[in-house]
Every structure is written in C-alpha cells, then in structure tokens.
Design a protein that fits this description.
single chain, 288 residues, 12-stranded antiparallel β-barrel, 2 helices
Length: 288
C-alpha cells in the first residue's frame, strides 16, 4: 500500500474523512448516532448536535460550523476526471464535521468525513479517518490520519485583509491502517501559507450566484472578491518508507474561498513533475 501517495493526495484534497459515516437520518434535532442504539456523547455532558445555524464566529470563508449545506465539484484527480460531493454536518463533539465522497474515472478516491476546528487564530484541519481507494489496484483501505499538531489552513477573520501575510506550519502526518501491518507511519510535513488577498474574475465551474460578488460584461458569471490562499509544502516519509523507495514530495497549492460558501476552486501541482495532483471546481451548491 502506497502510504506516501495517500498522504500527498489527501493533503492536496484538504478535506479529511471519518471511516464510520455520521448518522444522516436525524437532521431535525440531529444527535449523531455512532453506535447501534444510543446517542454518542462526544464531550463530558452533551450529545453532538449538528446545528444548522452554525457558529458565525468560526470563519466567514469556510462554513465548517454549519449543517445541511451541500457542494458538488468537478475534479481532475491524478489525470482522471471525477467528482467530489461535500455535505456539512456542523458541530460534532469538539470539532466540525464535513462528509466527503470523491471518485474518479481512473480509479481511486475516498469516502467519509472531515474534522475541523477554529478559534480566534483561524481555521484548522484536525484529522482524517476514512476509506481510501488506491488508484493502482482499486482496493479500499481503512485509513486514519492526524495532523499533529492541527494545521491552520485559513487566517483569523480579523487578518483576512492582511495581503501577503504568511504563516509557517510543521507537523507529523500520522497514518495508520488496519491492513498496513506497520503500525503508525509518520510523515514529516512542513510548509508555508500566503494570503494573496482578494482576486476578481475567478473562473469556476458554477456560475457566480447572486449571493456572491460577480463579474460584469465580458467577465459576467465569474467570481469576484475571492480569497486566494497559496500553499507550498514538503512531505518527507519516515525511515521505514524511505527504505522502501519513497522520497520527499514538494507541491504548490492554490485555494480559493468565497465568503459564506467556502472552497470554490483548488489546484495542487507536484513541483518536480508539474503533474496536477488534484484540481477542483465548484459545480453546484445549496443550503447557504
């Protein structure tokens, strides 16, 4: 199993999933069932409620705290056309959950949920637990991956207008799988995000909705006032992976966010090969 490929692709995809899907049957009061017969308490005293109202103080450019929204993306995944669907579940214990399913014509993908959090400093990726399908053989693998410590991927709301501001991150990307037979595989990840500020006339698969800022004239339908975040990262495998022929990977990532809607476009490219690892364009969205 090619764990380094998994780590790079899931990092590029940004979204992290959980292996056991959240219970979608209860959306009114929405206690998340994670066992056969009882509501799962994920903190000391309360059930994990998915609140459609969300937390307006979380982040205006990523609606991770809100429930009942859905987005559909067209995807290029390792050279193959595909789709990705996302659905917000809102609060889940001390995190926020997003259900994600990606599939591509060339094989490979994932299915599960992502976990995020936020504070006054920004928005963070917590962990990934999900089913990853390797493109080479089409085999499903139950994979758990944790950003240790959690990785900040968006600046604080108060710092959105700080153009060219950068922040560095360094963490261990710890991967375990029930079929690895190797315990936890640690992949050292370092990188730098840069806030490129607001971009106009961003070409996205979905025409700009009336709720967003849209171009006019020749640029009608293109998105304006889109937050552009650039990311450069390197992932270096642990010694047991190096012994099996794996090498470090460096990639460039450009991610675009619309206020109140979140991610609308993403492109991640391998520095060495110039191969597009993954690209996404928002095609449809609802519930915002």
């Amino acid at each position: 199993m090619r764990f380094l490929s998994i780590s790079v692709l899931l990092f590029a995809g940004c979204t992290r999933q959980i292996y056991e899907p959240l219970d979608t049957a209860e959306t009114g009061d929405s206690d998340a069932d994670t066992d056969a017969d009882t509501d799962s308490d994920t903190d000391s005293d309360t059930d994990a409620d998915t609140d459609a109202d969300g937390d307006p103080n979380c982040h205006p450019y990523e609606p991770i705290s809100y429930a009942n929204w859905q987005k559909h993306f067209t995807v290029n995944y390792k050279g193959s056309a595909g789709t990705e669907d996302q659905k917000g579940f809102g609060s889940f214990g001390n995190s926020f959950a997003v259900k994600t399913t990606l599939s591509a014509s060339g094989g490979g993908g994932w299915d599960g949920n992502s976990f995020f959090d936020c504070d006054s400093g920004g928005a963070y990726v917590d962990r990934f637990e999900g089913t990853f399908t390797t493109p080479s053989d089409g085999v499903d693998h139950a994979v758990t991956a944790t950003d240790n410590p959690h990785r900040k991927f968006l600046p604080a709301p108060s710092a959105i207008s700080d153009v060219n501001a950068t922040w560095h991150y360094s963490y261990s990307y710890d991967i375990t799988s029930s079929d690895s037979g190797a315990g936890t595989l640690a992949i050292a990840t370092v990188g730098d995000y840069t806030n490129y500020g607001f971009e106009d006339n961003v070409d996205v698969g979905m025409p700009c909705p009336s709720s967003a800022s849209c171009g006019t004239g020749a640029n009608a339908g293109k998105w304006n006032d889109v937050l552009w975040i650039h990311n450069v990262y390197t992932q270096t495998p642990s010694q047991d992976l190096i012994d099996n022929g794996f090498t470090a990977v460096t990639a460039q990532q450009d991610v675009y966010y619309a206020e109140g809607i979140g991610l609308i476009k993403e492109v991640t490219v391998d520095d060495a090969t110039q191969e597009v690892i993954i690209s996404k364009d928002l095609a449809t969205a609802s519930g915002f």
